[in-house]
Amino acid sequence: MHSEDVASRSADQRDSTRESRNGSSPQLDAVSLAIIQQLQEDGRRPYAAIGKAVGLSEAAVRQRVQKLLDQGVMQIVAVTDPLTVGFRRQAMVGINVEGDVESIADALTAMSEVEYVVMTAGSFDILAEIVCEDDDHLLDVINKRIRALPGVRSTESFVYLKLKKQTYMWGTR
C-alpha cells in the first residue's frame, strides 16, 4: 500500500485500532494494516523504512507496532524450515473425541511436537499439526501420547510429503 492510498482513507479511520462493535477485537485501520504488511514482507524492516512506505514518522511506527504487539494483533517471530533444523516428518492428525473436546485440545497444546491445534466441526473434532524428527518419533507421539489420552476415540494421520505453500500474509488481505 502506498502512502497516497493510506492518506486518502477517511478521517474516521485514523486511529490505529478501535474496538469492533461487539467489543471483542480491535478494528485495524489502513495504516496499521500497511504496517503489518510491511513487517510480513520483512520482519526486520527498519521503522524508518516502514514509516516512509506508510506516511508516518519512525516514532509513530514504533508506537503503532508496540500497540499491535501489546493487543496481541501480531507477533514478530523467526520462522524456521523444519527440515533444515532436523525435523524431517510433519503430519496433520485428525482426532475424534468422546466427551470434553477442550480438555483434549489443552493436552495436545502442552505437547512440544504439536505446533497447531484447532477444534473443528465436521469429520474430526480436532486437527493437530505435528512436527517430528522422523517416522519413529511421529509414531511414538501418535500411538503412545495422543491415542493414550482419555477421551480420544480415533485418529487419522495425513503425513506431509511436500510443502508447496506456507504463508503468513492472510492478516492484511
Oligomer: single chain
The whole-number mean of residue pLDDT values reads: 85
The structural class is: alpha+beta
**Sequence stretches where pLDDT stays below 50 over 5 or more residues:** 1-22
Largest sheet: 4 strands, antiparallel
Secondary structure tally, helices: 6
Order of strands, widest sheet = 4-5-3-6
Helix content: 25-40%
CA-CA gap between termini: 11 Å
Q: Approximately what portion of the residues adopt beta-strand conformation?
A: 15-25%
Number of strands: 6
Based on CA inertia axes, which overall geometry fits?
Answer: elongated
- What's the gyration radius in Å? 21 Å
Order of helices and strands: HEEHHHEHEEHE
Q: What can you tell me about this protein's structure?
A:
The chain has 173 residues and is α+β, with helices and mostly antiparallel strands. The chain is built from 6 helices and 6 strands, in the order H-E-E-H-H-H-E-H-E-E-H-E. The protein has helices at 3-7, 30-41, 47-54, 58-70, 101-109, 135-146, and strands spanning 17-19, 26-28, 89-97, 114-119, 126-132, 152-159. The strands form 2 sheets. It has a 4-stranded antiparallel beta sheet. The chain has a two-stranded antiparallel ribbon with strand order 1-2. A hairpin with a 6-residue loop joins strand 1 (17-19) and strand 2 (26-28). The termini are close together.
List key phrases describing it:
alpha+beta; four-stranded antiparallel beta sheet; two-stranded antiparallel sheet; elongated; disordered N terminus
